[in-house]
Specification:
The complex is a heterodimer. Chain A is mainly beta. Helix content of chain A is 4%, strand content 73%. Chain A has a 26-stranded antiparallel β-barrel. In chain A, strand 25 and strand 26 form a beta hairpin. Chain A starts with a helix and ends with a strand. Chain B is mostly helical. The longest helix of chain B is centred in the first third of the chain and has 20 residues. Chain B is elongated, with a radius of gyration of 27 Å. The two termini of chain B are 35 Å apart. In chain B, 46% of the residues are buried. Classes of the chains: A mainly beta, B mainly alpha.
């Protein structure tokens, strides 16, 4: 049974379940209509950013049914996005007090990505989009049933089915060239879980045992028009071309998991929390590939006309995480919490790749032979982390709150790469340890309608595991808010993050500065206005090695963003109006302007039925890439029906 | 299979025992709260609390679940000093007496919001939420979050973002919510992020194709996770990358400059001036992990 069928059955079941005969009362909101899209410029970029389409659209549906005679106390059904929307959601919640609680959730998301400049060596020739594109669908069904909720013992069961499938294009590096290939993925994750909750007053606990399986098949074929590859020049006098290509990969993962959580209180002033999670995943993989054409291999120092390749691999991964925490009220105005968390992740992987190179000749055209190679590879890694933390919070007066915290994290990473992974010995794997000390503090004060707060944190690490790890990081946040009843709310925030790794040869610095000021003004119940001004500045620099001449260079990334938005909402009798504009302007490494204008007009025909129209204009200007620009108008006309 | 059999047997035993453990019903006399608080009582009738506590608001017993001293308050003719209204940070303890404490993703009595003085009633309308509202929220999900976190909302107005509820980025109503990844009742910092049921980072709850385990993993994922290369909220760059050029993302770690760090081996001779080599993932396509290529080539 596919997911669509399952969903239809669930919807029908829900309707039957929500039979008005059994219901005491029913409230619902429904918005249903049609939307049109008018895009000039790059439609792929627009779809990548928004996922919107033409067509019917279930803008929103929420229904709540209550009834003493029904098999539920409360049934809540929600659905939206079905039709032309990029995401669809369906939710059913039903419960009967202290008897059961049922939750069914269905999510569907269209995953589309086709950008003109990404992974595109032919961009200068005007060929778009790039070679890495996605047009896939992600669907998720989660069903959870808890029996006897709120009672001393509450067993529960759960089922999940997640799928990710559809076409994509990617590239394949082989025989001295790269070729665009088409992928067709069919992946399903199935999960079953059972558990028991315990509610013993001040002590609560939950234990869950789950079984998760992944089953994925991916078929790769040569994309249309991709036989010539990315390299148009001959290699040692021969053109590199693909005639035939077929690869099938299969992955199966078995991942049982266990988690437990307990919390409880000793008296009124001491609380303890403990949790433990463990998963032990193992995968089995196979890969069959046939390739035909004309290729060169510098590893073999030979030309060849194709390959037959088989791969089998497996991996085992054990993850666990345990935490214990003590929270205590030392006085009515002073509390302290101390916690310790330990986590472990490890992986062992092996792969055996047999490749038969067909009709090979050496670079002088002599010594013809089929050549077989075997790659027997294994890798391993292990990561442990222990974190200890202590936090003290004080409320010396009703208007002031102070807190301070310190923590220490110890990381231990072992990476064991396979020999085939090492291009130049040194620096790829090894054992790395890193200790990070963090000191943080904050203050918050409330003076009637005015609230002020500030937070500061400083991290100090003894070494970096990867080059972009920091040795020093300092973060500061401030916030001020002014609330004059329901009429006026003014919120201002600021944030600075300074990150550095001054190690010679790395010289990494990253500075982020962010400001935001937002105002909401509601002079009357029927009218509200809001405006926002936000800035985001980022400047990151790190020394890198240039691969083609091995010189040193600074990798610099800069953003200077400014975001302004203004909107209003008003309702006069049966007419409601909402409108707004937003403009995000970014300078720096990836300059762009993204402007939005939207409006919505709602006209009530009766007390429960109305019509509403919506309009959205989205204008995107990527300043370094004119091919990515678009102007998109979206119009919609909907009918709404509600029953309160 | 043996563990499954044990679990089924345990659940069967529990199902037999539970009726015997059910709590006795409270037979106390009714309190006439609704006589004075008729508006509150009427709206409260449609909320989950009224049913979950097994009483109609009309008899007032349900009110006493949260409002201690209500009976004395009623007997004294409405003396407000006798009844407790569980508001503010202290009020959170009242809510927590029934809610929370069952998992890492559940309500924490010392959660970041509570510690910051943000009380339950800031977001939840206990008595008067719309009947169709989710979790008695005053506004739908993310729309509520961005009223206090406007700078985060601004991140979602960049070109490449997770598909969020339209109140945040205008893309569509059915997208993700802030609570898809964050636990609004969780503790501060990284602890406010949810984890998958098997303890994995929350990203993998949806991006199942990146979960693995892969025979050949990517060290960046092992050491620091998804945020090594991706912006979680919104980005100016394709695929929510942290840098505008893919080669920057890669070379900032994969450069040998004399420091002993993981993955810092010198890259092969790639002429970055050629369009073929400017995007490392054109060849190293399996950047999230591979089952057949140590160099993540497929």
């Amino acid at each position: 049974m596919n997911l669509r069928s399952l969903t239809v059955i669930c919807i029908l079941g829900t309707v039957a379940f929500a039979s008005p005969l059994a219901a005491q009362s029913t409230q619902f909101d429904l918005g249903l209509g049609f939307q049109w899209l008018d895009v000039t410029g790059n439609e792929d970029v627009h779809r990548t950013q928004t996922g919107q389409d033409d067509g019917f659209l279930l803008d929103g549906f929420t229904m709540v049914v209550t009834g003493k005679e029904a098999p539920y106390d409360r049934l809540r059904v929600m659905a939206n996005g079905f039709g032309a929307g990029p995401d669809q959601r369906f939710l059913v919640e039903a419960d009967r007090a202290r008897s059961y609680a049922l939750r069914l959730r269905y999510n569907r998301a269209e995953v589309f990505n086709a950008l003109p400049g990404f992974a595109n060596p032919f961009f200068e020739q005007g060929i778009v989009p790039g070679q890495h594109t996605l047009d896939r669908t992600r669907e998720q069904v989660d069903l959870d049933l808890e029996l006897l909720p709120g009672r001393t013992i509450s067993p529960f069961i759960g089922y999940s089915r997640h799928s990710y499938d559809g076409p994509a294009t990617t590239t394949y590096h082989v025989g001295g060239d790269e070729f665009r290939i088409a992928s067709d993925l069919d992946e399903t994750v199935t999960e079953y879980r059972v558990g028991i909750g315990f509610n013993l007053g001040a002590w609560r606990a939950v234990v869950t045992q789950g079984w998760r399986d992944l089953d994925a098949d991916n078929r790769y074929t040569l994309a249309a028009g991709a036989a010539e590859g990315n390299n148009s020049r001959p290699v040692l006098g021969k053109d590199i071309v693909v005639g035939t290509f077929d690869r099938r990969t299969s992955t199966k993962v078995d991942a049982p998991f266990t988690n437990a959580h307990v919390s409880g209180a000793f008296g009124r002033h001491i609380r303890v929390v403990g949790s433990y999670t463990r998963s032990d995943a193992s995968s089995e993989n196979s890969d069959f590939e046939t390739l035909g054409g004309q290729f060169a291999s510098f590893e073999l120092a030979r030309f060849f006309s194709g390959t037959d390749e088989t791969m089998i691999g497996s991996s085992d991964s054990l993850n666990w995480r345990g935490e214990v925490r003590l929270e205590a009220d030392l006085a009515s105005w002073l509390d302290v919490s101390a916690g310790y968390t330990s986590s472990h992740r490890e992986l062992d992987g092996v792969a055996l790749v047999n490749t038969l190179y067909l009709d090979t000749v050496n670079f002088t055209g002599a010594l013809p032979a089929d050549v077989a190679t075997v790659l027997d590879a294994s890798t391993a890694w292990e990561r442990d982390e222990d974190v200890a933390e202590l936090r003290v919070t004080a409320r010396p007066t009703s208007w002031l709150r102070l807190w301070g915290a310190l923590s220490q994290a110890s990381q231990d990473v072992d990476l064991t790469p396979d020999a085939a992974e090492i291009v130049v010995p040194g620096g790829q794997g090894g054992s790395f340890t890193r200790d990070i000390d963090r000191l943080s503090a904050g203050v918050a004060a409330t003076f009637g309608v005015l609230g002020l707060s500030a937070e500061w944190a400083e991290d100090d690490a003894d070494r970096a595991v990867v080059r972009s790890d920091y040795l020093d990081r300092e973060r500061m946040r401030v916030r001020a808010s002014l609330k004059l009843g329901p009429m006026l709310t003014l919120i201002g925030t600021g944030e600075w993050i300074d990150t550095a790794n001054p190690t010679p040869g790395v010289d990494y610095t990253a500075e982020i500065e962010r400001w935001a000021l937002d105002l909401e003004f509601t002079p009357a119940e029927q009218l509200s206005v809001r405006g926002g001004w936000h800035t985001y500045d980022s400047d990151s620099r790190i020394v890198t090695r240039v691969p083609h001449d091995f010189s040193l260079s600074h990798s610099v990334y800069v953003e200077e963003g400014e975001d302004v938005d203004v909107s209003m909402a008003a309702r006069f009798a049966a007419v409601g109006v909402e409108a707004g504009v937003a403009s995000y302007t970014n300078e720096g490494s990836q300059p762009f302007d993204l402007d939005r204008t939207w409006a919505r007009l709602d006209i009530g025909l009766t007390s429960s039925v109305g019509l509403y129209g919506m309009f959205e204009r989205r204008n995107y200007d990527e300043k370094l890439l004119s091919l990515a620009r678009f102007d998109a108008d979206r119009y919609g006309l909907f009918v709404r029906w509600s029953r309160k | 299979m043996r563990s499954l059999a044990y679990t089924v047997a345990a659940l069967g035993a529990v199902a037999l025992l539970v009726p015997a453990l059910a709590a006795a019903q409270d037979q106390a006399a009714a309190v006439p709260c609704a006589e004075c608080h008729d508006t509150v009582a009427a709206s409260f009738q449609t909320t989950p609390h009224a049913r979950a506590l097994g009483r109609d608001a009309a008899d007032g017993m349900v009110c006493l679940s949260c409002h201690a001293g209500g009976r004395e308050h009623a007997d004294a003719g409405g003396d407000t000093s006798l009844v407790k209204s569980p508001t503010g940070v202290a009020g959170a303890a009242t809510c927590f007496s029934c809610h929370g404490g069952r998992s890492d993703a559940d309500i924490e009595p010392r959660g970041a919001h509570v510690q910051a003085g943000i009380a339950c009633e800031t977001c939840h309308d206990i008595h008067g939420a719309a009947a169709t509202a989710e979790a008695l929220l005053k506004k739908p999900g993310s729309e509520l979050c961005v009223t206090c976190h406007p700078a985060v909302a601004s991140s979602f107005r960049k070109p490449h973002t997770h598909s969020m509820h339209e109140s945040v980025d205008g893309a569509g109503k059915a997208g993700m919510q802030c609570a898809s990844c964050h636990n609004p009742h969780g503790r501060d910092g990284a602890d406010s992020l949810k984890r998958g049921r098997s303890g994995e980072t929350v990203c993998l709850s949806c991006h199942t194709d990146k979960r693995g385990p892969f025979v050949f993993g990517h060290g960046a994922v092992v050491v620091n996770g998804c945020l090594t290369c991706h912006e979680p909220h919104g980005s100016a760059n394709a695929f929510q990358l942290t840098r505008s050029r893919v080669q920057q993302v890669c070379l900032e770690c994969h450069s040998a400059t004399g420091t002993a760090t993981a993955g810092s081996q010198p890259p092969s001779f790639h002429d970055l001036r050629s369009p073929r080599y400017q995007n490392c993932t054109t060849c190293h396509v399996a950047v999230h992990g591979s089952n057949s290529s140590p160099l993540l080539l497929r």
